[in-house]
Write a structure and sequence with these properties.
The chain is mostly helical and 142 residues long. It has two domains: 3-36; 55-138, Winged helix-like DNA-binding domain superfamily/Winged helix DNA-binding domain (Arc Repressor Mutant, subunit A, Orthogonal Bundle), CATH 1.10.10. The chain contains nine helices and three strands, in the order ααααααβααββα. The mean pLDDT is 83.
Length: 142
């Protein structure tokens, strides 16, 4: 363990002690729940444990270009890079940038056929993306 890590752990511990002391000295103690065991209980909640990975997925799909690419891929098993360029009417380099983000996230993969790269959604993400598409259609619209 590095000195920097020890310092951060020490600071975190001291901050926790300060929070407990502030609660003990305030009216919050009477109206607030007990802190005993709260961290262990919270860390067992799946949405809490996986919040970072959920947010990573949402960051990937929150871009309109990537969402459009994923929508196309949901409708087709494989799609060529040039199809995205034609349908989205944007430059190939920008499409390639977004396809790389989709590949790096693990949501999309590709195969090379001659000069063309064909893309598809990775099987494990397809059900999630189909559900997301359905949720978006049922979301309140302004």
């Amino acid at each position: 363990m590095t000195v920097e890590k020890k310092d951060k752990d020490f600071e975190k511990e001291k901050l926790g002690e300060k929070i407990v002391k502030l609660i003990d000295e305030s009216e919050l103690k009477a109206s607030c729940c007990s802190l005993e065991g709260w961290e262990e209980r919270i860390k067992k909640i799946r949405a809490f444990k996986e919040a970072d990975s959920f947010c990573d997925i949402l960051r990937v799909v929150s871009n309109p270009i990537r969402m459009k690419i994923l929508t196309i891929l949901l409708e087709r098993n494989w799609a060529c890079n040039c199809e995205f360029e034609y349908v989205l009417n944007i430059h190939q380099t920008l499409i390639s940038h977004h396809l790389k983000i989709l590949r790096d996230s693990g949501m999309a993969t590709f195969k090379q056929e001659g000069l063309w790269k064909l893309y598809r959604i990775v099987d494990k993400y397809r059900p999630f993306l189909e559900e997301l598409r359905e949720l978006l259609f049922t979301a309140p619209q302004e």
